[in-house]
Amino acid sequence: MQKSAVLDSILARLDTELQALMRGARASFAAATDPDSKAENKYDTRTLEASYVARGQAQRVEELQAALRGFRALSNTTATSAVQVGSLIGLKMAGGTDHYFIGPAEGGLEIVIEGTELMVITPASPLGARLMGRATGDKVTLPSGQQATLTSLE
């Protein structure tokens, strides 16, 4: 599994999500500002609700744009012997090996590369915090209490 392929897949997924969200945000904004959606009485809150949805979507658009910038910046990083943001790692446990990418944002994002599932985690997550600065071969106690060995690092 190549780190560049992982980054490309993450960027493509985030870009697709951003485009869909931007379409939805435009539709929500149009609904919130449409003169035909004027309240018919004091209990009619459609316009207010549409404005809340539009604002929430606009905030998510900003978050995704920042995440895309952060992941694009990782293409310029070089591999090191210690886990850092941008590291592609494997954790070997009794049940097999789990693969993770340490990202600047979007923790929990799951992708499949070459038939292998991979999850993005951030340094702010409990697992990410335990992995930062570790090296191949290090033993790690997972938040669940299970023991794992750091098997690969790119």
Radius of gyration: 20 Å
Structural class: alpha+beta
What separation lies between the terminal Cα atoms? 10 Å
Q: Name the helix and strand elements from N-terminus to C-terminus, one letter apiece.
A: HHEEEEHEE
Q: What composes the largest sheet?
A: 6 strands, mixed
Backbone shape: elongated
Number of strands: 6
Percentage beta strand = 15-25%
Mean pLDDT: 89
Q: What is the strand arrangement across the widest sheet?
A: 3-4-2-1-6-5
What is the tally of helical segments? 3
Helical proportion, percent range = 40-55%
The total domain count is: 2
Low-confidence runs: none
Topology:
Elements: H1 3-33, H2 46-73, E1 88-93, E2 96-102, E3 110-113, E4 116-121, H3 126-131, E5 139-141, E6 147-153
Parallel strand pairs: 2-4
Antiparallel strand pairs: 1-2, 1-6, 3-4, 5-6
Helix pairs in contact: 1-2
Task: Describe the protein in words.
The chain contains 3 helices and 6 strands; from the N terminus they run H-H-E-E-E-E-H-E-E. With 154 residues, it is an alpha+beta fold. It has 2 domains: 74 residues; 66 residues, Chitinase A, domain 3, CATH 3.10.50. The chain has a 6-stranded mixed β-sheet. Helix 1 runs antiparallel to helix 2.
What does this entry show, briefly?
It contains 3 helices and 6 strands. The chain is of the alpha+beta class and 154 residues long. A 6-stranded mixed β-sheet has the order 3-4-2-1-6-5.
What features would you highlight for this structure?
2 domains, Chitinase A, domain 3, 154 residues, single chain, alpha+beta, 3 helices
